[in-house]
Design brief:
The structure holds two protein chains of two kinds. By secondary structure, chain A is mainly α. Chain A has helices spanning about 1-20, 25-40, 55-75, 90-95, 100-110, 115-125, 135-160, 170-200, 220-235, 240-265, 270, 275-290, 300-305, 310-325, 330-345, 355-370, 370-375, 380-385, 385-390, 395-425, 435-470, 485-505, 505-520, 525-555, 560. Chain A has three domains: about 15-45, no CATH class; about 60-270, no CATH class; about 300-560, no CATH class. In chain A, helix 8 runs antiparallel to helix 10 and helix 20 runs antiparallel to helix 21 (about 435-470). Chain A is globular and about 75 Å long. The two termini of chain A are about 25 Å apart. The model of chain A is unreliable at about 165-170, about 275-285, about 285-300 and about 565 (pLDDT under 50). Helix content of chain B is about 40%, strand content about 25%. Chain B has two domains: about 1-75 and about 150-240, P-loop containing nucleotide triphosphate hydrolases (Rossmann fold); about 85-150. The chains are: A mainly alpha, B alpha/beta. The interface between A and B is medium-sized, with 36 and 32 residues.
């Protein structure tokens, strides 16, 4: 039986590679990716770098540690839309009725993610260098360990959430077991640390503040972050001997997580494709207590009344879908929360935080613009698996593409404009900021002119990529996993930024030309007119991308999007 | 009216459909038969505008599907063998959506009437994943009938339905034909084809190897009892393609 699983896994992987290499688009994509990796990172692989300075390394380790702690906490806190162990249709059809232990299927499912994990580790090991281990092989191995650990946590968290018919014993066992082992391991380390302090400073060693070690912040801090530090230690080991000695602890953590995950007896009927979502939807609906159609929400009725053109029906459908997808909630919270933080800096005791708050707002606005199109995906990326259905509609390909892309653009613009308007209101009279209220208003107006075009370019680019290389895109309502697949996330972001930068060249040149001409009218007029021209040209470019996309959409092969194994 | 002339489609080296021509008049129900892999679904996909033919022409309600796809598709309805739905739309919203797509004036009211006509009241606010196979078929049919298509393409419409569901589906198809729709129905269920269809098209290896009324098809293989349709079908599709009736 295990042989059959191996056969399936290896043969599928081989056939997938062979199939992709027959398609010139994927070959070109692979050549580009490997050329990028080789010319940017690969040529320096043979040369060993000098170890990082303790200062720069300290900052980098802190950032990594923070990322790992947040990623780990989010894994447990936020509910995943799709179970990481969910089988695709053919897998469910063949494996569930087969005489296989559920743990064997789980092992198989985890092993099928290995190629993606290896690819991500390779990319991460090559891309991230500063402050980390000087040898690429060490970095790749260390990245592999971290990604595997995150993957296991994700599976563990999902298993713990899967409802069980017979009590919640095994589900809770994962959480309780994790916490218990975590505490035991961390206490052991803390005791070892205390022992070393005791050896140095006496039995009840004092820290710099004169507080006994056992009572100081160091002990709870050590307890909480020890496993993360141990996981990261191989990544920043500067010598081979430190790497070898630190990898044992990291592997121990992975082994503990593996043991805990495999302690659970997954019930595939509840994990498999349809029923989990059904339960999720039922749960969501019972929470919301949806009203009958005649009492539907105001905005729903408003949008429905706007929909007169058939193409707008697709946009309406996608907006309805986005309303039901919970992953947008953090974005909505941030779009409203960040301006509130900005507004709070008007209060005298908070004024010294103004630059921090504006920086935070800037980072979030940038993320919304550059990364937003990757996350808000209620467009062709969601609907391409239903290509057959889309093609039966009485719409041209251009109308379908425009309506689909329009939904994500509308949603992102809504978030951006809510944040822009609220932030402008919060900042306009802040006395600690440079520039007068008029100029600030001019900048806000310029941003308002730029945002539609820039957002349309971003979303259209993402959809274009999905139409050109559907097998490299996560299609359907499933969200690509960023934390456990950082390699793909890196390339997605890279491609987005490159497309974005290239597409903004002409608008920037045109805006500069207009600004030169309007300059005598004053700075505000210059900024606004430049932004207006750049925004209009960017919209025009997005329209061109849509036209091109529609042509390719027409030629898309049904088999390229209906397969169960995309991405 | 549905008209196909000299349709052809290849997938790589495989010839899926080859020089296929036929015409279905308004009010006529025509059965499309063939063994697995004969090219039935590819034919239906080309007629529905899902797959572009390599050559040939498709006319729906007198309009060229390739030249004026919007106009042609506006009077066309297609139900796939495995109907697809949007997982975040309820039953009611699917009908609203289809109403909007086809520009139906009073979409909400006609959605309501379809819901009661197809017995979907209790599932009005259910998501597709909460529906049984039969209910899904009903929803697919309701969505397709929303705009009262003049040409209907059905791919295995009765597969997986219980006897009551089959009866409902058959009644709906017959009613639609009485209203003047041209219907092309692909199925492996020969008893259904005998009951519903006035004419048959049999494809084999992508080519049309036999066409005619039930009697003509039976006559192509021998005498004419209902059992003989099966014999005639097996006989026709076991001959090398190109030597059809």
């Amino acid at each position: 039986m295990i042989g059959a699983l191996w056969f399936y896994g290896l043969r599928s992987a081989r056939n997938r590679i062979v199939k992709r290499t027959r398609d010139v688009r994927y070959v070109a994509g692979m050549v580009l990716v490997f050329a990028y990796l080789y010319f940017v990172f690969g040529r320096s692989m043979g040369h060993e770098r000098t170890p990082a300075s303790p200062g720069s390394q300290g900052v980098f380790v802190l950032v990594l540690l923070l990322f790992l702690v947040i990623a780990s906490l989010l894994t447990w806190w936020m509910e995943q839309r799709d179970h990481p162990l969910a089988l695709n249709k053919p897998q469910a059809q063949f494996l569930i009725p087969a005489p296989l232990a559920s743990r064997q299927v789980m092992l198989f499912k985890l092993l099928t993610t290995l190629p993606t994990v290896l690819w991500s580790a390779l990319v991460m090991g090559l891309v991230f260098r500063a402050g980390l281990s000087p040898r690429p092989a060490q970095r790749i191995l260390a990245a592999l360990i971290v990604i595997v650990a995150l993957q296991l946590q994700r599976v563990g968290a999902a298993l713990a959430r899967t409802p069980r018919p017979t009590g919640s014993g095994s589900a809770r066992a994962i959480i309780v077991g994790t916490v218990r082992l975590w505490l035991v391991a961390a206490t052991a380390v803390a005791l070892a640390q205390a022992a070393s302090v005791a050896a140095e400073h006496g039995l009840f060693g004092l820290d710099k503040m004169g507080i006994p070690f056992a009572l100081s912040y160091q002990l709870p801090g050590s307890l909480a972050v020890w496993p993360f530090r141990a996981l990261l230690a191989p990544a920043y080991a500067q010598s081979l001997s430190v790497f070898v000695s630190s990898i044992a602890a990291a592997l121990l953590i992975v082994a503990i997580e593996t043991a805990l995950v495999f302690q659970a007896e997954p019930e595939w009927g509840r994990i498999g494709i349809a029923r989990t979502r059904e339960e999720k939807l039922r749960g969501r609906r019972s929470k919301k207590k949806r009203q009958p159609s005649e009492g539907s929400s105001l905005w729903e009725r408003y949008i429905t009344s706007l929909v007169k053109r058939p193409a707008a029906a697709l946009t309406w459908k996608n907006l309805m879908a986005s309303k039901r997808i919970q992953t947008l909630r953090p974005a909505v919270v941030m779009a409203i929360g960040v301006p509130i933080v900005l507004g709070a800096t008007l209060l005298p005791p908070m004024q010294h935080l103004t630059s921090f708050a504006t920086g935070l707002a800037g980072v979030w606005a940038g993320l919304l613009l550059f990364v937003g199109p990757q996350f808000v995906r209620n467009d062709l990326r969601m609907d391409l698996p239903r290509l057959r259905l889309l093609r039966t509609y009485p719409l041209t390909s251009l109308e379908i593409c425009a309506a689909e892309v329009g939904a994500s653009v509308c949603l992102l613009l809504l978030l951006q404009f809510v944040m822009l308007i609220l932030s402008t209101a919060a900042l306009i009279f802040n006395p600690t900021l440079p520039l007068g209220p008029g100029r600030r208003l001019a900048f806000a107006a310029a941003l308002a002119c730029l945002l539609p075009g820039m957002t349309a370019i971003g979303v259209a680019g993402q959809n274009f990529f999905a139409v050109v290389l559907p097998k490299w895109t996560t299609l359907g309502t499933k969200m690509p996993s960023r934390a456990t697949n950082p390699g793909q996330a890196y390339f997605s972001l890279l491609v987005s930024v490159i497309v974005f930068v290239l597409s903004m060249i002409i608008p920037t040149i045109a805006a500069a030309g207009v600004a030169y001409g309007v300059w005598p009218l004053g700075i505000s007029a210059t900024i606004i007119s430049g932004a207006l021209v750049a925004g209009a040209i960017a919209l025009g470019e997005a329209a061109l991308v849509l036209r091109w996309m529609a042509t390719l959409f027409d030629r898309m092969d049904l088999a390229s999007v209906t397969s169960e194994s995309n991405a | 009216m549905i008209e196909a002339s000299h349709l052809a489609k290849r997938f790589g080296s495989i010839r899926a459909v080859d020089d296929l021509s036929f015409r279905i008049e308004p009010g006529e129900i025509v059965g499309l038969l063939g063994r697995n892999g004969a090219g039935k679904t590819t034919t239906l996909h080309m007629l529905a505008g899902i797959t572009r033919p390599d050559s040939g022409q498709v006319r729906v309600c007198g309009v060229d599907l390739l030249e004026q796809p919007k106009v042609a598709k506006a009077c066309l309805g297609f139900i796939a063998d495995e109907p697809e739905f949007f997982e975040y739309l309820t039953v009611e919203e699917h009908l609203k959506f289809s109403g909007m797509l086809y520009g139906i004036h009073d979409g909400a009211a006609s959605a309501d009437s379809l819901i009661s006509r197809f017995g979907l009241e209790e599932k009005r606010r259910a998501y597709p994943e909460e529906l049984s196979r039969g209910m899904r078929q009903k929803l697919a049919l309701a969505c397709v009938l929303h705009h009262e298509p003049k040409a209907l393409l059905l791919d295995e419409p009765l597969t997986g339905l219980d006897p009551a569901g089959m009866r409902d589906m058959k009644d709906t198809i017959l009613a639609r034909a009485r209203d003047g729709a041209a219907i092309l129905l692909s199925s492996h269920l020969l008893f259904l084809v005998e009951e519903l269809c006035s004419r048959l098209l049999i494809v084999h290896d992508g080519r049309l190897v036999a066409s005619g009324t039930m009697q003509e098809i039976r006559g192509a293989a021998g005498d004419g009892t209902s059992r003989e349709l099966e014999a005639a079908f097996l006989d026709i599709t076991s001959r090398p393609s190109g030597s059809g009736a």
